[in-house]
Amino acid sequence: MDKVSARVPVVHLQAIKRSYNIGTPSEIEILHGIDLDLHRGEFLALMGPSGSGKSTLLNIIGLLDRATSGHVFINGTDTASLGDAAITRLRGHAIGFVFQEHHLISAFTALENVMMPMIVDRDFASSAIRERAAALLEKMGLAHVADHMASNMSGGEQQRVAIARALAMRASLILADEPTGNLDSQSADTVLELMRQVNKDEGTSFLIVTHNLELAQKCDRIITLADGALVTG
Ligand code: ADP
Ligand code: MG
Fold first, then answer.
1. Ligand 1 centre from 66 Cα, in Å?
2. Closest Cα to atom 6, ligand 1: which residue?
3. Ligand 1 atom 11 nearest Cα
4. Disulfide: which of 82, 100, 163, 176 matches 181 by Cβ 3.0-4.6 Å?
5. Which ligand ends up closest to the CA of 176?
6. How far apart are CA 197 and CA 233, in angstroms?
């Protein structure tokens, strides 16, 4: 990667505001003007009380939702200038998601779940898809259960499959919304360690929403959202 692109933040937010119920008596502004840079290769924790707007912000960064005003730059591209098709493509190729609920297809095996984004995208040669999915599962320590049904796996294993799936398209950014929220502390540690390893090995940037301070302290930096604004500290 050349020096210029290495300096362009993966995410650059300018004055992001998000309101709900616009034009009705219950109109409410949830995000009050968020500025944020997420640097290439950074492993960032986002904390804040329930209802402070963390998921709203993550969904805007992940191009699943549009801000009411302000700009989201992904790898230097101002997404406000993009149409729906370009947004979908950028989301599919640049961003991987891991949620609190794994969102795996329970009737598919672990391997099939990881293959799915590559099959849907059609940019990958079909012979390469199975191989890449198997390699990603191996990286997550799941080679031995690649053919198990997702529904029969433990919560920790399911989250590791979800991480492998998020990595399938070679995203430069992984957004994880309380990825360890449903896990016991040992599984949570394993999941965090695996994300950290991917971050170190591949330079993938991570933004992880968590309520777990111990886990957040293992990240490069912690930012905190309170009442729809970032508090520095
Ligand atoms: P967090 O993830 O920090 O718990 P959220 O981003 O989910 O917070 O929610 C922030 C606030 O926005 C909450 O008060 C929530 O009720 C409200 N909210 C979220 N989604 C909607 C929606 N679609 N319509 C109205 N209010 C919403
Ligand atoms: Mg949330």
1. 14
2. 53
3. 51
4. 100
5. 2
6. 26
Q: Among 156, 152, 164, which residue's Cα sits nearest to residue 181?
A: 156
Burial (0-12, 13-18, 19+ Cβ within 10 Å), 87: middle
Confidence of residue 39 (pLDDT cuts 50, 70, 90): very high
Residue 170 domain flag: yes
Q: Which residue has the tokens 């609920």?
A: 101
Task: Indicate whether 98 belongs to any domain.
Answer: yes
Name the pTM for this structure.
0.94
Task: Look at the block and give the residue holding tokens 């499959």.
Answer: 161
- Ligand 2 centroid–CA 101 distance in Å is 12
- 10: in domain: no
Ligand 1 binding pocket (C-beta < 6 A) is 20-21, 30, 48, 50-56
Q: Which residue, by CA, sits nearest to atom 19 of ligand 1?
A: 56
Nearby residues for ligand 2 (ion, Cβ within 5 Å): 54-55
Query: Can you tell me the distance from the alpha carbon of 161 to that of 164, in angstroms, rounded to the nearest whole number?
Result: 5
Name the pLDDT band for 4 (thresholds 50, 70, 90): low
pLDDT tens by residue, 119-162: 998 788 888 999 999 999 999 999 999 999 999 999 999 999 99
Name the pairing type of β-strands 95-98 and 173-177: parallel
